[in-house]
Amino acid sequence: MKTSLLIISLLATASFALADTDSSCGGCCAEKPALTVMAANTDSVAAYPLDTCVVSDEKLGEMGAPIDYIHKEAGKPDRLVRFCCKMCVSKFKKDPAKYLKKIDEAAAAKGK
Questions:
Q1: Contacts 24+ apart (CB under 8 A), 6-13
Q2: Model confidence over 9-44: pLDDT tens digits?
Q3: For the segment 40-77, what is each residue's pLDDT rounded down to a tens digit?
């Protein structure tokens, strides 16, 4: 009996931990991709030109701490990209040039 209660308790806890009830990002968090995020240094975060997610345009920090992702591309310097949620990272990876251009344009506008 104790073993059954323990198993039921563990299953219930796991199902609650895996459930995603936050739809504030337009449902982009419905999928949970594997994600490797590297720590960004303080200077690069301070110099980041956008205060919104580069993918969803959600204000960074409204859905919890922003996801800081270091984009690596052979022959180019590593780039900090900030997201509102993990799902936006996978959307970014499908077309990074599109989103990097958006960051570059924001940096150019900020520098004027």
A1: none
A2: 444 444 434 444 444 455 554 444 334 455 556 777
A3: 567 777 889 999 999 999 999 998 999 999 999 999 99
CA distance 53 to 92: 10
> What pTM was estimated for this model as a whole?
0.64
Residues 6+ apart with CB under 8 A from 52: 58, 59, 60, 84
Q: Where are the domains of the chain?
A: 2-111
Q: What is the C-alpha radius of gyration for the chain, rounded to an integer number of angstroms?
A: 18
Q: Which residues pair with 25 in a beta bridge?
A: none
Nearest-CA neighbor of 63 among 112, 24, 109? 24
